[in-house]
Automatic annotation (TrEMBL):
Transmembrane segments: none annotated. The lineage of its organism: Bacteria, Thermotogati, Thermotogota, Thermotogae, Petrotogales. It comes from the Bacteria. SUPFAM superfamilies: Stabilizer of iron transporter SufD (SSF101960). One of its GO terms (biological process) is iron-sulfur cluster assembly. InterPro entries: Fe-S_cluster_assembly_SufBD, SUF_FeS_clus_asmbl_SufBD_core, SUF_FeS_clus_asmbl_SufBD_sf. This is SUF system FeS cluster assembly SufBD core domain-containing protein. Pfam families: SUFBD_core. Residues 160-377 form the SUF system FeS cluster assembly SufBD core domain. It comes from Petrotoga sibirica DSM 13575.
Amino acid sequence: METIFEKPIDIRHKDLKAVEWQIPQITPKRDYGDYEFQASLEHISNEMLKTFKSYRYEAYKNWGFPKWKRAKLNGYEPDKYVSFVPVSTSGKILALNGIDQEGIEILAKYDFEGAHRKFLLMAEAFSNTGFYLKTNEGEEREPIILTYDWKSPIYETSVYNISPFSKATVIRYIKSNKNENLFRTTSNRIIVRENASLELININLCNNDSLNIDNTFVEVQKNGKVQVTDINIGGRITSPHIVFRLAGEGAQAQLFPYFLGNKDNVIDMLYLMRFYSPETTGAIDAKGVIKDESKAAFRGFLDLKKGAKEANASESEYTLTLSEKAKAEALPSLLVDENEVNASHAATVGTIEKEKLYYLMTRGFSLEEAKKLISSGLFESAIDRIKVFDEGMSREVKDVIFQRI
């Protein structure tokens, strides 16, 4: 079987290729081993899945945890292992244990680095929750809502296999009510096949002590369409990592990241769209707010490979800062190895215009109220999109955003 491995930096020209800097790794004093791996198999009867997890566990042993200077992470020591994490589901979707041969082939064929290889392999080797979504050809699946009540470490492996000419919507809603250290890492693989479409909405409401790493790989095939709304609110460290592979002619992808950091949160984002085929279209439109001493690092890659003729690629990012101590890093990247393309990228960091504040204050709002109204307005499009599927959920998300701004 041909295997595909996607990583953020993949610069090659004729016989030349880029040399990558290797992230320092730290071997923890305490790590998961055979005991935790065997515990992770307790809820699995699928032999193919067990075999896959075994391979990933062997690979996991060879890695240390990363030292991320940008996120102030100096390695990691895993929390006490929990072998099963319940998730509330609405809509038709299987637990990962129900994965079929085709799903296993997706796991085996498509691979990626994730935010870091150790965290990706951790999610796969020690998965304690996960799902398998497979639509039938031509089916329009009712929206699926997955609600995670985050109380213990989450290790998720999921596969979405969207069949030709079918349509699906998935909302992943993560919320933590406990104010204590929480950890989550994921590995999600999504294949959107010919003329199929998928809408994915990620809602990550993290507490100020949580470490949240969400890794997703998406391949879009001929004339397929995918739209992702990625909302990340808070978290000591929040690290979304989404890779799009526009593999088929006419494939389309839209990504709308939203982020909010307060206190000393670090939101470290990496979004990559890689264009391989003609007449593909990909767009990233990111917005966010940072306050207090928080930090937002946005890395967005548009990578147009040879053969992606008449591709359309665009990227924009806007960070609103509400504090002089908050820090924004915007690193939009545009890599083009094909002549006949349309591509653009831009990033902006700004503050609230005094005229807007004055306008609201003349209508009775205090300064703080005016700042909250203007800042929370950046999230309105995302809130409206959630409301289409669940009005109560949209109110919860809106309230959390308003409270934290």
